[in-house]
Specification:
heterodimer, A: alpha/beta, four-stranded parallel β-sheet, 14 helices, B: alpha/beta, Rossmann fold, 2 domains, 16 helices, 10 strands, globular, binds iron/sulfur cluster
Chain lengths: 390, 427
């Protein structure tokens, strides 16, 4: 690896491994009065925080690098892992740097975690972000606008400064740039997954959890520029797969590496979906809150926790397979994740109708053994290559 | 005792007849040209459906009935065979398995296919997935009613407006289309007026447990008492009659100083008064209940009997504000409340009902109920100074009902309460 890229990857890796949120502390210390707010998966309107001068910080649990000492005492064995590691992060003081937490409506576990937070950390700002499941502008749109206004009011108080329309327009533009860079990166990976292996791309995405969006966009752009300069990144006889089910509790990095080593190029995924929730540009001119509302109603991505009035679950996945010229789908969901696992049979039915191959397994963010997954993914990869050659 | 058990049987008989009659009506629905709407217990809109002459089907009730009749294990296995994960809510799998095996209701009658899936998205994320799955099976329309969560325990005006607007713009037009009838608000009002009678009587019955000894068990008995009002009979004359009869029976028990009726007759001496959080297990329901009444433990209040509405905290359907009150009803169901509100409610039950202890039955299926219950346990212990008990089981998957283990836990918990009592007396 050339030194420039090596440095860049090293930086992303450091940010990924930093459970103490040192980057957030540094950012806060750089100017007096700075505030940071954590948010869990999946979608929150980060633009509003940014416009208030608050740093939005993505909190995705503790991964495989956190020893759970107290968190397990709060959750039964049949509940997924992310809430226990998140509670562990908080009880161990690692989230003290945050001035509040937002809990999006992704499912009942995160929803209930918002109430737990209120009880565990009285006095801290906590909000459950209940996005609309009705997409009529006059109904769901009107509701969402009121919710955003309330959130805006809260953030104004927290930040100690009003959020002006121009601030919000500026923030929308900043996040548009960020989403654009991510889209370009995804497109580039889809074309040349050997240049942007997912185990690396993922680190760069994750950096967006703790960096201000301007800096994150710059980092992504550098990566986009530097990765293709690596001469040894060559096309291999791998299969092209889409990964689904990882929109909340994150897989350990080792799992992504394992899939790649097993012969799978990941050409699309639902990792860190919150960063890519809005599939297009948010209008910058005009009423910025209205623009955020419209973007949510019209440009939200298809995923398990968002209702699809038209009902054709699986269509987006089939389109992703087609658009990315994938040969198969790997369902890779956290154990006990009702949203992902209840969605699966519907997605599978859609794939079967199109004769798209698939396989499935479960993980936990702290899974440390990948031998079985490697074998299964390897067999799957071989079989779809055989299939496509046949 | 026998006299009272006969009286008790009158309300039970009535309920049995009502349920059987409803399943029969459902079985006849296709030939009679009646339309059916599948929907959920929390946030159910029974009066509204009935005002269009539509028949409600409640898949949760089918699942729990299948559990009680030992049918659920087979249904769950069937659903798992079709690729449904071992990890997810067993109500969903029980329902899907039942459908795959011909959609025969727990009473043995044929269930009609839905003409509409009314997705009252109240207090549980899984509801959305459940009906999305059914939509694929039945290929029928869905009306979504998104009910905002009361994270801070308050109903905000714009939340209510949002639900009302959805009723007006999404649900009612869909019901009109399915039924071929116009929305008749007067009919809805009349039905809501009937609801209030039943709600008043239900609250009286539930609150009778404040007496010592309690004339009812508000969990194991309570699940029978909530049956009609949480399902197809709110806002109907049969519903009103059922609750009037039930109330009279409990009034008589109270007058006679009797404890709750159990499957084995009147309970003996009341030794422990408990508050219970979480749904019961259905596959071993009687065995589970027996573990309590054999020890003289009576449940004086439970949160499960509030999943279809918190009437005991003052909510009533209001004929003068029909859609607004339906909206408030949906938002106020127990699992739609933030955890701090749930803890406050349980704490107030422990105090108001003079409970000696409280227990959480944590069911594997239900993230909505279960996620956070261990913290609820600690909070309640801290706030009341009373130690809590914690047991784990499932709703309708018998694989997760470990009888010996649960019995052991209940017994040791009650022994601990006894010891505590002894210490207090000695002190
Ligand atoms: S991993 Fe799944 S079940 Fe767990 S909190 Fe996330 S969405 Fe909910
Ligand atoms: S998750 Fe809980 S509330 Fe939801 S359908 Fe299952 S049992 Fe009912």
């Amino acid at each position: 690896m050339k030194p420039e890229l090596e440095q860049l990857v090293h930086r992303a890796q450091q940010l990924y491994e930093d459970l103490d949120l040192a980057a957030v502390r540094t950012w806060k210390q750089a100017a007096p009065g700075r505030k940071a707010i954590g948010y869990m998966p999946i979608y929150v309107p980060r633009e509003l925080m940014h416009a208030a001068g608050i740093l939005p910080v993505g909190i995705l649990g503790g991964g495989d690098r956190l020893e759970i000492i107290r968190g397990d005492a709060y959750f039964q064995s049949y509940i997924c892992h992310i809430p226990r590691s998140t509670v562990e992060l908080a009880l161990s003081g690692r989230l003290d740097v945050l001035d509040g937490m937002l809990f999006p409506s992704i499912g009942d576990v995160i929803r209930n975690l918002s109430g737990m937070w209120t009880m565990l950390f009285p006095g801290r700002y906590v909000r459950y972000v209940d996005v609309p499941q009705n997409f009529d502008p006059k109904v769901g749109g009107a509701y969402w606008r009121r919710e955003l206004e309330t959130l805006q009011g809260d953030l104004t108080r927290l930040a100690g400064r009003a959020i002006k329309d121009d601030d919000l327009r500026h923030s929308i533009a900043i996040y548009n740039q960020n989403r654009q860079a991510i889209r370009e990166l995804y497109q580039a990976r889809s074309w040349q997954p050997w240049v942007y292996p997912t185990s690396e791309l993922y680190l760069f995405l994750r950096a967006g959890n703790v960096l201000p969006p301007e800096e994150h966009t710059e980092l992504l752009r550098q990566y986009l520029k530097l990765a293709p300069l690596e001469e040894d990144r060559k096309e291999k006889d791998h299969s092209r797969v889409v990964l689904v089910g990882m929109f909340c509790e994150q897989p350990p990095l080792g799992l992504l590496l394992t899939l790649e080593r097993a012969g799978c190029w990941i050409v699309d995924d639902d990792l860190l979906l919150g960063m890519r929730w809005l599939t297009g540009e948010v209008e910058v001119e005009g009423d910025p809150l209205a623009n955020l509302v419209t973007a949510f109603l019209e440009q939200s991505t298809a995923t398990a926790s968002r209702y699809q009035p038209e009902g054709d679950r699986g269509r987006a996945l089939v389109e992703s397979v087609q658009h990315n010229v994938a040969e198969g789908v790997i369902f890779c969901a956290p154990s006990f994740c009702d949203p992902a696992l209840l969605d699966q049979p519907m997605l599978i039915a859609a794939l079967d109708r199109e004769s798209i191959q698939h396989t499935q397994f479960k993980y936990s963010e702290d899974t440390g053994q990948f031998a079985v997954i490697r074998e299964q993914a390897g067999t799957f990869s071989d079989s779809i290559r055989l299939w496509s050659e046949a | 005792m026998s006299e009272h058990s006969v009286e008790k049987e009158q309300s039970m008989l009535l309920q049995k007849q009502m349920i059987a009659g409803h399943y029969q009506a459902l079985a006849r629905a296709p030939e009679e040209g009646r339309k059916t709407v599948y929907t959920f217990v929390p946030g159910n809109l029974t009066e509204l459906l009935r005002s269009f002459d539509l028949l409600p089907v409640l898949p949760e009730i089918n699942a729990l009935q299948s559990g009680m009749r030992k049918l659920s294990a087979g249904y769950i296995a069937e659903a798992e065979k079709y690729g449904h994960s071992e990890d997810v809510c067993t109500y969903v799998k029980c329902d899907i398995g039942m459908l795959k095996k011909g959609n025969i209701s727990p009473t043995g009658t044929q269930l009609p296919n839905p003409d509409l899936l009314l997705l009252s998205y109240t207090g549980c994320f899984t509801f959305m997935k459940w009906f999305e799955l059914l939509r694929q099976e039945y290929d029928c329309p869905v009306a979504m009613l998104h009910v905002p969560y009361q994270a801070d325990g308050k109903i905000h005006p714009h939340h209510r407006d949002y639900v009302v607007e959805q009723l007006r713009s999404e649900v009612i037009p869909m019901l009109e289309k399915i039924s071929g009838r116009r929305y008749d608000e007067d009919r809805l009002r009349a039905s809501l007026a009937l609801s209030v009678y039943a709600e008043d009587d239900l609250v009286w019955v539930l609150e009778s447990a404040k007496n010592t000894p309690s004339p009812i068990d508000a969990y194991f008995g309570g699940v029978y008492y909530i049956g009609p009002i949480f399902s197809a009979f709110r806002g109907t004359p049969e519903g009103v009659e059922y609750y009037r009869t039930l109330r009279q029976e409990i009034e008589a028990r109270l007058r006679d100083g009797l404890g709750p009726i159990t499957p084995e007759g009147s309970m003996g001496r009341e030794r422990y008064r408990l508050v219970v959080e979480g749904p019961p297990n259905w596959t071993s329901f009687r065995e589970f209940w027996k573990m309590f009444y054999d020890e003289g433990a009576v449940v004086v209040a439970s949160s499960y009997t509030k999943v279809g509405g918190l009437y005991d905290r003052g909510f009533r359907h209001d004929p003068d504000r029909p859609l607004e009150s339906l909206a408030e009803y949906c938002m106020g169901c127990y699992t739609n409340l933030g955890l701090p509100s749930r803890v406050e409610l349980l704490e107030s039950y422990i105090r108001e009902y003079h409970a000696d202890g409280f227990m959480i039955n944590s069911v594997k299926s239900c993230n909505s109920f279960s996620a956070g219950q261990l913290l609820m346990l600690r909070q309640l212990e801290e706030r009341t100074g009373i130690p809590g008990g914690f047991i784990e089981s499932d709703l309708v998957d018998p694989r997760y009902f470990s009888s010996a283990n649960i019995k052991n836990r209940i017994e040791s918990y009650l022994q601990m309460l006894e010891q505590k009592r002894g210490t207090k007396v000695g002190a």
